[in-house]
Amino acid sequence: MDFNLTREQEMLRDMVREFAQRELAPKALALDAKGEFIHDIIKKTAELGLVGIITSKEFGGTGMGHLARMLMIEELSRIYASLGFFFQTGQIGMYAIENFGTPEQKQKYLPALCKADKIISTALTEAGGGSDPSAIQTTAELKGDEYIINGRKVMISEAPVCDLAIIVAKTGDKFSAFIVEKGTPGFTTSGKENYVGLRSLPVGDLVFTNCKVPKANLLGQEGKGLAVAIGGISAVGRTGVAGVALGTAEGAYAAAVKYAKERKLYGKPIAELQAIQYMLVDCNMEIETARWLCYKAAVLLDQGKSPRDAGDDITRCKLYSCDIASKVALRAIQIMGGYGTIPQYEITRRLNDSIELFTAAGTQEIMKNTLARSIIA
Fold first, then answer.
1. Are residues 312 and 210 part of one domain?
2. pLDDT-flagged residues of the chain (< 50)
């Protein structure tokens, strides 16, 4: 498979890299310590066309595709994974609306989302469900022209700041997806989790108490809600997590290489020590392997493969990239010694970010279960 980038993709990569160095590198440590939503920076990325990178031009996006999105997330996450992860979560909902929404829903929501004038959250997880979406207990009962929704979604990215949310609820014995707007009576957000990593991405709960949602806000067909959510989580969520992991690993590796070349021991750089070289070689090989897996999954989606048909490749890129992100960060700490654990060197931040990726868009164990079923089918 040919991963030669087009001139447009190369220009995008270089532009995002320059943006990350200018806007994120000088303040990443402070942003992480503050732990607040970085809407002002996200608005700047929207002005560059990054928020709508996989959304069609007719709805305000740039339509550059999944490989372009992977490059963007990779470059942002090299410097600050919290921003890279925003594009993992926010674009799930945008993908779902464009692929399953009515013409009216697309025109109503996508242009504002592409400009980051509105923030979207996608909510599947519940306290008793987790990796089992069929255990969803939130209900939606049709009464006249409205659905009455009751339930609670937990550990939802952007929940505290979202202007609208895509949720999945039980309709009878099946599941349906809905668009719920902020300000709808009975719809509230609750709490803000204090996670160790991805600190600038607020996570909380969505609560529905006799929440009345117009029938026009049904997303896709009634009873097909899991297909709406899981399609977006696979194509956009898992590839996005993989891109964040890849960029996080690259950032830690670059810091370790720089330190190894500059730090001297016994009169020569520690980069000349064989033990250090072996750790750097392991990092280098793992990152290159992860990049191949990530780019391949993105290219397959750009070629028109459905999330199901590209499922094994998507699963592999998420599983492997998340594994190596933490390994590379830990090796960077070993190489840098005591300096590696000082916050100012930003390796512990990257390690904390990598830990958060293990459960995002499906746990590592769920990824292995998915691949195992494919292997023995």
1. no
2. none
* pLDDT digits 0-9 by tens, 112-152: 999 999 999 999 999 886 667 778 999 999 999 999 999 99
pLDDT at 192: 77
Question: Look-up: residue for tokens 């005591």?
Answer: 338
| CATH label of the domain that carries residue 246 | 1.20.140.10
What are the residues facing 156 on neighbouring strands? Answer: 204
Total domains in the chain come to 3
The residues with which 159 forms a beta bridge, in sequence order, are: none
Of the CA atoms within 13 Å of residue 282, those in its CB half-sphere come to 16
Question: Residue 163 has which token pair?
Answer: 């202007």
- Report strand pairing: 174-181 vs 203-214: unpaired
Q: What is the pLDDT of residue 135?
A: 83
Torsion angle defined by CA atoms of residues 353, 359, 363 and 364, in that order, rounded to the nearest 10 degrees: 20
- Is the whole-model pTM more than 0.90? yes
DSSP state of 214: E
Whole-angstrom CA distances from 174 to 7, 108, 142, 150, 178 are: 46, 27, 13, 15, 13
Give the chain's length: 377
Range of the domain at 359: 226-376
Helix (H) or strand (E) holding 67, with range, is: helix 66-79
What are the angstrom distances between the C-alpha of 272 and each of 18, 152, 243, 347? 31, 55, 31, 22
Beta-bridge mates of residue 291: none
Same domain, yes or no, for 231 and 372? yes
